[in-house]
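User: I'm new to structure prediction. If I give you an amino acid sequence, what do you actually give back? Let's try with this one:
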Amino acid sequence: MKMIRMLFSLAALLFLQAAPLTAQIPASELPSPGKDTGLDGKYDPENGIAQLIRDKSAEAARSKIFEDEHVLVFMPLPEEEVVAPGHVLVVPKRLGARNVLDLKPDELRDLMVAVQKAGMAQRKGLGATGFRVSQNNGLSASQTVYHSHFHVVPFFGDGPPGTPPPRRKLAPEEYDSIAAKLKAAWPK
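Assistant: Good question. You get back a string of structure tokens that encode the predicted 3D arrangement of the chain. For your 188 residues, that looks like this:
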């Protein structure tokens, strides 16, 4: 019986990893395939991440977990569904990097250090028992915002291995609580 459960869990995990991200994104929100949705194209300085980098409002600060001159780490905005509570995006602050191929070696190093620190903060601040790092390049690989970014998604060991909780919106109090815990646990 235990072997059957383990095989079922493995099959579920493989199915979830094989399912394209586009199946999770409403068709109305997907960009049209074209020249600017591949690995080459013009950078759109009005994309959502670029807007957040420039935004100095209190509402934007609410989502920002860490920021220095090169990197910004933020939680998806409160009105968006999250993959898991504590899910963060790690982005270069330089505008113009559409995907990982556009990053300079020093930028990539700074981003990976922040990715590691995000995992540490999720572990220490939220009690995560694991985390997943993902990064998509081009529409065919499920990239929908053309500013290079890494997703760091915490897991809490409350389901079959590799299975995130259902996507959901966080209540304002829960969002603020999670952000405060991640900020407090951010490694120096």
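You can read the tokens as a compact description of the fold. Here is one thing that stands out. The CA atoms of residues 4 and 76 lie 37 Å apart.
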